[in-house]
Specification:
Blueprint: H1 2-55, H2 57-68, H3 79-95, H4 99-132, H5 141-171, H6 183-194, H7 203-231, E1 237-238, E2 241-242, H8 244-274, H9 280-285, H10 299-310, H11 319-344
Antiparallel strand pairs: 1-2
Helix pairs in contact: 1-4, 1-11, 2-3, 2-11, 4-5, 5-6, 5-7, 7-8, 8-10, 8-11
Membrane topology: Multi-pass membrane protein
Protein name: Mitochondrial substrate carrier family protein
Subcellular location: Mitochondrion inner membrane
């Protein structure tokens, strides 16, 4: 009897050790799998950002030039005229000026934004299911808006200094009195001459603007996709999925809604980024030096002065090239992200 008890004890001990070993092995694999999944998600987001922004780089530069140009020295009267002028005076490289800096900013920004949206969505969905007691509950449009806003704030804050110097590099022309030689030179010059706080000038209107912009982008896109997949009102579903054209259309609608609401804040952000740059007045006109200084004490002061001196319409300067840019840019970003994740074998739907 004693020997049988010993054998049973030894057998139980061996089983316990084997089980612990299996759990330990699974525990080692899990972080590795999670790390790879995170890397793939970040990579997909980065590729999506780089591809979408490069595709519309000339329109992005034109938008910024229209936003910040001196109202007393109009150089760009419209999108088409402005693009022709840049082509004539600066050539092909002029159309893509600042795109390298833009990509250096947008690639990590897009990577963090898409990844943050997925994680925020999962967290919000988990809390929503816990609160409602319904394990099959799905994200509502409002909850998607919250997840998108969270992702936008995190991504924008993490890469804002790059956005600030990108804006300054973009408005430089061949006739500008002072030239930043590149990203590193612009960052070091701003830090030396204006201090570290200057790198976050315009951050507040950016935060306020990113909530409706990025939040609505994700909320509208995901909601449209879910509605089309579940109800299939127009017969667009093929093999239980949407075609690339349909997804591009969803992204275009999402981009249009988001940018239309948040655009005035983008104009104010750009103008505040020029404050403190001693050559800003001359740079934005592209014609020598100017005695007129660009000075705002804050976001509300920038709003007041812009409307008082240039009218309400000034808050929508550059809207045409931005609209033409945003529609394909957002659409391309969403579809590229999903396609890259599909190629990498990563599940991207968070509502399941």
């Amino acid at each position: 009897m004693a020997s049988e008890d010993v054998k049973r004890t030894e057998s139980a001990a061996v089983s316990t050790i084997v089980n612990l070993a299996e759990e330990a092995r699974e525990g080692v694999k899990a972080p590795s799998y999670a790390f790879k999944s995170i890397c793939k998600s970040l990579f997909a987001g980065g590729v999506a950002g780089g591809v979408s922004r490069t595709a519309v780089a000339p329109l992005e530069r034109m938008k910024i030039l229209l936003q910040v140009q001196n109202p007393h020295s109009i150089k760009y009267s419209g999108t088409v005229q402005g693009l022709k002028y840049i082509w004539r005076t600066e050539g092909l490289r002029g159309l893509f000026k600042g795109n390298g800096t833009n990509c250096a900013r947008i690639v990590p920004n897009s990577a963090v934004k898409f990844f943050s949206y997925e994680q925020a969505s999962k967290g919000i969905l988990y809390m929503y299911r816990q609160r409602t007691g319904n394990e099959n509950a799905q994200l509502t449009p409002l909850l998607r808006l919250g997840a998108g806003a969270t992702a936008g704030i995190i991504a924008m804050s993490a890469t804002y200094p790059m956005d600030m110097v990108r804006g300054r590099l973009t408005v430089q022309t061949a006739n500008s009195p002072y030239q930043y030689r590149g990203i590193a030179h612009a960052l070091s010059t701003v830090l030396r001459e204006e201090g570290p706080r200057a790198l976050y000038r315009g951050w507040l209107p950016s935060v306020i603007g990113v909530v409706p912009y990025v939040g609505l982008n994700f909320a509208v896109y995901e909601t449209l996709k879910d509605w089309l997949l579940k109800d299939n009102p127009f017969g667009l579903v093929q093999n239980n999925d949407l075609t690339i054209v349909t997804r591009l259309t969803c992204g275009a609608i999402a981009g249009t809604v988001g940018q239309s609401i948040a655009y005035p804040l983008d104009v104010i952000r750009r103008r505040m980024q020029m404050v403190g740059w001693k050559d800003a007045s001359a740079v934005v006109t592209g014609e020598g030096r100017s005695k007129a200084l660009l000075e705002y004490t804050g976001m509300m002061d920038a709003f007041r002065k812009t409307v008082r001196h240039e009218g309400f319409g000034a808050l929508y300067k550059g809207l045409v090239p931005n609209s033409v840019k945003v529609v394909p840019s957002i659409a391309i970003a969403f579809v590229t992200y999903e396609m890259v994740k599909e190629v990498l074998g990563v599940e991207f739907r968070i509502s399941d």
